[in-house]
Write a structure and sequence with these properties.
This protein has three helices and five strands, in the order H-E-H-E-E-E-E-H. The chain has 117 residues and is of the alpha+beta class. The protein has a domain of 79 residues. A three-stranded antiparallel β-sheet has the order 2-3-4. A two-stranded antiparallel ribbon has the order 1-5.
């Protein structure tokens, strides 16, 4: 085997081994909303800006002090927190139990995957 290739493979393996020892932060949020700046202004006022409550596990994201009420055909869920920063599209993320409580059948998608939603 080529010495250069062997060295590259060994370096890659060392790096992978070192990375595998690092903890992976995991955070769970049963329900939250992501809003565009325009939708935020509609809900909270033209002069309003989101205010940070605390950081969340995903780098660059944060829980906001601003909260909304989700209403569906069967019920409502109050105090649903916004996650910032503003997004390109507004979306609501709820658990299966929440969807039953609201009386809706939302599509199941990874966060941010809005195709056919």
């Amino acid at each position: 085997m080529d010495e250069k290739l062997l060295k590259e493979i060994l370096e890659d393996l060392k790096l992978r081994q070192a990375r595998s020892a690092l903890p992976v932060p995991v955070g769970i949020s049963n329900r939250h909303v992501h809003l565009t700046k325009e939708d935020f202004k509609t809900l909270f006022g033209a002069d309003a800006d989101d205010t940070r409550f605390k950081p969340v596990k995903q780098p660059g994201q944060y829980a906001c002090n601003e909260r909304v009420t989700l209403e569906g055909p069967k019920g409502a869920i109050k105090e649903v927190r916004m996650i910032g920063p503003y997004r390109k599209y507004s979306q609501v993320e709820v658990s299966l139990g929440d969807s039953r409580r609201l009386g809706v059948e939302p599509p199941i998608r990874d966060s941010g995957k809005l195709d056919k939603s």
